């Protein structure tokens, strides 16, 4: 059972000059912890207990997220109250999360949706808590990779639509490449298209993307691109489990399709999402940007998994163009979770004098030294 009592928590995180002085952010944590203990001291309804534990975890995550920027400020380390509060809330969140996980298993209500959500929240809590306890490892803090400048308008169109749809960057690129063969008959649109055709693909504006999207749809070379919501992406989460294998949210070892390319993206918290590249719901494209709605990632590429065992992983993503460091960070996060890499191969794609090369490594060798000599080079 959760050991942190409400009054003990308040006392540990109080200002010395006024015991009850609490800001609005920490009061959310106070209320969640108080509600949990009221439930535990009352009739103890299982569903309500789960709800209270979840609310407590989310309150701790919320406080840690709000204070993230402050936590990265070196001056914050001199603020004893802030350091204490961050440590106590990180520990409280971790304790509440463990209790929530245990109760879901005990009550036999750990559905696939909940399993994915639970794994996501665990990683988020770990990332936001990193550094709260001196000496504790922080495997999830990694350099992030944004989409390339030639794809940023995809994300912008999604935000401007109220997160309803995104213009496909892939479709816009195809249309731009062949635009001189698709010029509209309307004189005004034709003149606009001719100007866009002369632009470098990296310098296209959102208005250019809209024009390319309209022309591309008329010529059947583009259409919708999937951008998954938070709940939708949880279905495609891969979780490191028993034996260092990768399991899906149904707790089954993953085997990727033998024919279709399987894409992956790892979000900023270290959650790994995988899916074959087949579009969903009548869309025309499913890209690496689809998993995380165009947000920054630790890495993206393709992979092969057999009976839960990772066999191949690479950084082959046109949307994100991950670096050697990005791929190493991704594999390091998985290894820190206990992923067995004995049978895995890393295919690192690099550009040498403008030419794309594949540098092949044994995964364990790549983990030890990502700058080492590759086992094989394909040009």
The helicity comes to: 40-55%
Shape by Cα distribution: globular
Q: Total domains, how many?
A: 3
Tell me the number of helical segments per DSSP (H or I, 4 or more residues long). 14
* Separation of the first and last Cα atoms: 58 Å
Looking across the biggest beta sheet, what order are the strands in? Answer: 4-3-6-5-7-8-9-10-11
Structural class: alpha+beta
Q: Could you list the spans in which at least 5 consecutive residues all have pLDDT below 50?
A: none
Q: Note the main sheet.
A: 9 strands, mixed
Number of strands: 11
SSE run: HHHHHHHEHHHEHEEEEHEEHEEHE
Alpha carbon gyration radius: 24 Å
User: What proportion of the residues form beta strands (DSSP E)?
Assistant: 5-15%
* Average residue-wise pLDDT: 92
Could you explain how this protein is built, in words?
The chain has 379 residues and is of the alpha+beta class. The chain has 3 domains: 6-129, no CATH class; 169-222, no CATH class; 230-378, no CATH class. 43% of the residues lie in helices and 14% in strands. The chain contains 14 helices and 11 strands. The protein has helices spanning 6-12, 24-40, 46-66, 68-71, 80-106, 112-129, 152-160, 169-177, 187-197, 206-218, 230-234, 288-291, 324-336, 363-368; strands at residues 166-167, 224-225, 237-240, 246-247, 262-266, 272-276, 299-306, 309-314, 345-352, 355-362, 376-378. A 9-stranded mixed β-sheet has the order 4-3-6-5-7-8-9-10-11. The protein has a two-stranded antiparallel sheet with strand order 1-2. The relative contact order is 0.09.
